[in-house]
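Researcher: Here's a chain I'd like modeled. Treat it as a single chain, no partners, no ligands.
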Amino acid sequence: MISTDGARRLLFVDPTQKLYTEVNTLGIASAIGTSQIVISNLQSSVTRLDDGKVIAGIPTDHYRLNMTYDITVTFRNMPLKQSVRTIIDKWTTVRFGDVADVAFGNPAQTGNAQIDELISAETTKIKGFPLRQTVSVTTINNNGQIPGSRLVVPATRTKTRETTVTAISEMAADDKMFRIPAGYQRTDFTEAISKSQTQVLSTTSSPQ
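Model: Modeled as a single isolated chain. C-alpha cells:
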C-alpha cells in the first residue's frame, strides 16, 4: 500500500500480478456521511495503565480507550438500533515523533458530525506510534430480532482483533518506494476486490 497525502488516496499494489488499484478514502468517507447512520450517547475515556512493556525492542506506554454509544442504521425504512462498547488497548511509543499523527491522526471527514466525532475519538485520543493494539467490540441488540423478520439475532456479540509489531527500524526512504513501478497496470477497485476473493493479494506497505 502506498500513500503520499496522509491516506486520502491509497494505492494498493500487487507485485505478483503487476497491478495496482486506487482508493479515494475521501469519497468513501463522503458516502458514509450521507448514509442513514445515527450515532448517539457517545461517551469515551482514556486511562494510562502501569503495565507498559518492551515490544520489538522498544519500551512502550499502555493506554486503554473505552467508548460506548448507540448506533441506528435505517435499512429499507426499518431502524435497526444497537448499543456498542469498544475497548481499545494500545502500547505506544513516542520514539518516532509525530509519524503516528501524520499517518493516523487526520482521518477523512465524512460530513456527519456524529460519525466524525466517533472516528476522532478512536484515532486521536491516544498519542504515539502503536506497537501493539487490541480492539474488542461488543454489540448489544436489545430487541433480539430484526423488525419484520423471523430471524433471531444474538442479543450480545463480541469481536476482538489484535495487531503486534515484531520488528521496526528507521531508515532513509527511497523515493522509488512511493511510485508505481514501470509496467504495472491499473485495475478497477471492484475488479480487484473480485480477484481477491479467489487469490491472496500480496501488498507492499510504504507509508510516508
